[in-house]
């Protein structure tokens, strides 16, 4: 059967990752979390106290940035590694979330990560989620989905997720973080968050998780 590329873009906290993961499992595809790559780059810059205004500092820090993904059979989940260290939990913290949009607007960071993402998807059979997957990373993707959901609903879902991981955060902090990231991601100069002209829009505010996954599976089957 022919393998395709599925690009899932949308606002922060819409459930793109969990949807993309479930979709990849059903189709036997590889799931790639491009946001985790921007988060890992952000953690790397924070750890090395990189001055984001200084292009040379950013460029030399990018040279020592190595991001990889490994499947953990104990948790049944794919985890993110930064220079050989498992950073899966740390990259989801509010500290990283509060800085990631500043890092992801830097042209040189995007060029490096987009090229790695294109390489990861070159053999097709991938589901990749992010902000510019259907517009920049894979403009020829056979299926593009643009996910949206009401801000408060998104924040409540994210609060539950973080509380389950034992992180101390409030609903207000999450609403502020999601709204700020949406604003920065949509208005930046480099690859702003935009719905591709040929994307299918999916509002998940009132959809059950299984229904949203099944809907995308049926879109995918139409294109395979
Ligand atoms: O998907 P997630 O919310 O983990 O992404 C974190 C941040 O990484 C986003 O708010 C955005 O600034 C950046 N990002 C991006 N382009 C992507 C994926 C994520 O700019 N393709």
In CATH, what is the homologous superfamily? P-loop containing nucleotide triphosphate hydrolases
CATH class: Alpha Beta
CATH architecture: 3-Layer(aba) Sandwich
Bound molecules: cytidine-5'-monophosphate
How much helicity do the residues have?
A: 40-55%
The residue-averaged pLDDT reads 96
Q: Which strand order do you get reading across the main beta sheet?
A: 2-6-1-7-8
Count of beta strands: 8
Structural class: alpha/beta
Span between N and C termini?
Answer: 7 Å
Describe what this molecule looks like in 3D.
The protein has 224 residues and is an alpha/beta fold. It has a single domain, classed as 3-Layer(aba) Sandwich (Rossmann fold), CATH 3.40.50.300. The chain is 50% helix and 17% strand. Strands 2-6-1-7-8 form a 5-stranded parallel beta sheet. Helix 1 packs across helix 9 and helix 4 packs parallel to helix 8. Cytidine-5'-monophosphate binds next to helix 2, helix 4 and helix 8.
